[in-house]
Amino acid sequence: MDADPGLEPDLEPDLDGFLLARIAEDQRLAAEAAQASGRESWDGGVTAPHGAADHVAHHDPARVLAECAAKRRLVLACRDVRPDLRLLGARPAGLDIPLPPTDQHQLAALTLALLALPYAAHPDYRPAWRP
């Protein structure tokens, strides 16, 4: 399959690869936390400072692993659509969001870019990916 000449080939595979690597890291950390605690779920059985226990329980390994699986499926589905990352740089002055996607390729690019935002502080994150 030939690449669309309008796409920036150095960005397209890297954004989905970046996300899959971050998801794998999150999955590894959740699996290690479950193994270290001796249980897969922390629902209600966590001792933590007031207010923190709910947060910890909400991010228990079982939930994080399920979230990783869902995110991975979403990234792979978007990658299969061949995202058009040109949308990410297309925004009128003063707007901090890109133009609305007009087709599935732009929607896939925007979805990947939004999924990558929580990892923006990672050294491999590229500013060009910011929606």
From TrEMBL:
InterPro entries noted in UniProt: DUF6221
Top-rank lineage group of the source organism: Bacteria
Pfam families xref list: DUF6221 (PF19730)
Region listing for Disordered, in residue ranges: 32-55
Name the record gives this protein: Uncharacterized protein
Organism annotation: Geodermatophilus siccatus
Taxon lineage: Bacteria, Bacillati, Actinomycetota, Actinomycetes, Geodermatophilales
